[in-house]
Amino acid sequence: MMSGAIVAISGVAGVLSLIDPHTQTIVGALNVIGASVGAMAGVFKFGERKRQHDFFEVEYEHVANMIETEMATMDTDPTYADVDEFVKAYRATVDRLDARAPDIPAWIEK
Fold this sequence. Notes:
The protein is mainly alpha-helical. It has helices spanning 2-19, 24-44, 46-73, 83-100, 106-109. It is rod-shaped, with a radius of gyration of 25 Å.
């Protein structure tokens, strides 16, 4: 998505430079901005980070749904022998997810 915006900016800038010679300065500025945005996207890996966070969001939702289902069926059809076993099993699952999940900076968590 980011690369599409960069291509669009460059294309518009190129067309503008053909129409009016005074726009060459604007064209140059737009190309510099486009290159800067592209470089920042490559360095900070925004797309990759978003994919990782989206993946783990789905995983945590899956665990939450499993817990809700277990809580709803605990009286009629329990999967675990007692509550302690249930808590240990899901705690281990959440700990595994936490170990693999991408870090969230402290200033965002506040």
